[in-house]
Description:
With 311 residues, the chain is of the alpha/beta class. Helices cover 45% and strands 19% of the residues.
Amino acid sequence: MQLRQLEYLVALARERHFVRAAAACYVSQPSLSAAIRRLEHELNVPIVRRGRRYEGVTPEGEVVLARAHRMLAERDTLRQELAALRDGLTGTLRLGVVPTALPAATLLTTPFCDRHPHARVSIESLSSADITHGLTEFELDAAMTYLDDDTLGGLRRLPLYEERYMLLTPVDGPLGGAPMAAWSQAAALPPCLLNSRMRNRRIIDECFAAGGATAAPAIESDTVAGLYAHLPGGRWSSVISHAWLHMFGVPDGMRVVPLEGPAHGPRVGLATGPDDPPSVLAAALLAVAREAGVREALDALLRTYLDRHDH
């Protein structure tokens, strides 16, 4: 059994098409098919369901595929460790991030690149479910995500900060001068919010419901940037996570108003895959995260914006 055969199998499971998998591996389709057939012969089990086209893997194939992911990850980790001894940390850190945590990602990636100038970071905006899949299939080294997500299972987790929800509203609006707002008051404003597929929106809807209200936003977006694009001009308000202030700040003519209720929302943190110990790149990011002071930096930024309007 050769690692190249395992690479072909992983590519086939990912692409779900023999020709595309062969192209991804830079080999001909007959070569890829023959290599996987040899692997089946060597292990004496059927791995791939074959019809007129690729139809998935067999139960035995699922076991082989899981081991293939782990063995290839171990090979990559070995290469990274040897390269780090020779040249310092190199390679590309594959980081998945839930969309609502993207504005705070630079609090980790910038110090990581400062400490490891020969390494690179590839960031991908993903749903919580896609992040769990990416980590367990060794397609990601680490992820910034909600740590209370049940799908994370036994993956390693490092808390970074707790979301704090604020009303972002026009200064000359009904709540522009309020020291604090109720969730029911926020729901009565013309709001723009993330759409209901986003975990952040579902959490915020629960907060509205706890306050006896339901929000009916006229504008919904699947990105924080799309939401913020509608805020300048004084027409719309929104409920934001304080982490978004790190990238987007407070638009001119608007103000951050605290919302009544719990001081903190769900925890956002760093999750890494099932490999133990973690890959060299994941371990390096964890080391940076432990020293980055993300919670303190975001809380200090929020105090700055709140104090700005109190004086």
